[in-house]
Amino acid sequence: xxxxxxxxxxxxxxxxxxxxxxxxxxxxxxxxxxxxxxxxxxxxxxxxxxxxxxxxxxxxxxxxxxxxxxxxxxxxxxxxxxxxxxx
Length: 87
Fold this sequence. Notes:
With 87 residues, the protein is an alpha+beta fold. Helices cover 22% and strands 44% of the residues. The chain has helices at residues 62-70, 77-86, and strands at 2-5, 8-21, 24-33, 44-49, 59-60, 74-75.
C-alpha cells in the first residue's frame, strides 16, 4: 500500500477518473495518491474504460498496472472488477 516516490512515502490507488460530457461519461484508469480528489492530480494514466461500450472495449496497459501493483498500489473495487473481466 505504500510506495516510494520522490523520496517520500505515499499511499497510491489505481482508480477511475471521470471524463466526458454530461450524461455521457467515460473514465480514465489512473494511478493517484489516495489524498487527491477523484478528478484531480494523478501520477499516470494506465487505461480507459467506457461503460457504454463495456469492458471488452477497454484499453488497459496491463504491464504498467502490474508494475504499479508490485510497487504497492491498491486497485479500487471497481477497477479490480474491470481487470478481472478483462482477463
